[in-house]
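We treat protein structure as text, and this decision shapes the records that our systems exchange. We quote a single record here, exactly as it is kept in our systems:
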Amino acid sequence: KQWYQRRVRGEYYCKAQYDKPAYIEISGEDLITLSITGFECDISQKEIENAKIVDKSMDGGKLTFTVKCNPGYWFSKGSGNLLYCDDDGSPVYPECERVIIKTNMVEHNNDSNLLEVTYTSKSWNGTGTLCDDGWDNREAEIVCKQNGYKHGKAVSLTTDREDFVLTELDCPCDEKENLEHCLATRYEENELSCLPGETAGVRCYNESVETIATFLKTRSARKKYKLYLKIKVHKFGEPIGHTQLDSSSFALKYPSAELQTAKLSVKVKGDAAFIKIVARKPKGHKPSKPDCLTVEMKGPLDGKAYEFGHCFT
């Protein structure tokens, strides 16, 4: 018999002309597979661009290879994932094409951003939200760095949007800067559906301890300044409680006059502290333009002084 030998990804595939196809495996120090089939076309690994062979099988006396695209590549529309010889004796190669994934952060609340994703390739494109299956801090870190932050934390958000386009976003452990080599699955191909409460979001931060202040209501009356604000403190991107805060933690500063605090109260609800400040204006006070003042807070964790400015309009 005449033997033919092919080497694909380190494995040797040999064939001979037999009346009936057979499949033989020989085990040794290294596994060598002898596939004796009616496989009559030449297969070149060079033709399998941006992919690798991950499995093989025998079906009806024909040897078929299962192919997986490299990270950052998807199978082209209509391509399939099998490498085989057709009835005419010609090799059929799957095609993997480069896919570009871009992200956009949309403000969801004072703590987190909704993550919008856009993917484009030669035959695929879409824009929408990301399902949080497989979404974790490694991918969030990359997204935040792309948007100018030092660190990121993955969160799951509840929204009224149901425009999922990607799921199972997974980046290599050594990937730090971009999504170029990350894997993702088109949502249409996902076996499990995502609920509105499973929308991927991200919380970006620069320092280990950060404080966020939101002025909810402000008023500059004839004799008084009134401010109502919400304070949240994050440690490594995670909100923490505020049981350490009280009225002694805050002070009101004005650039050109001393203000007498008439009332200062602190109420803690969940992971937020709500501060109400009423300050009397000095007699004959003429506000500067713009009329701005500063709330000073002593940090509940690090003792650092934080300042939050506000200008009245």
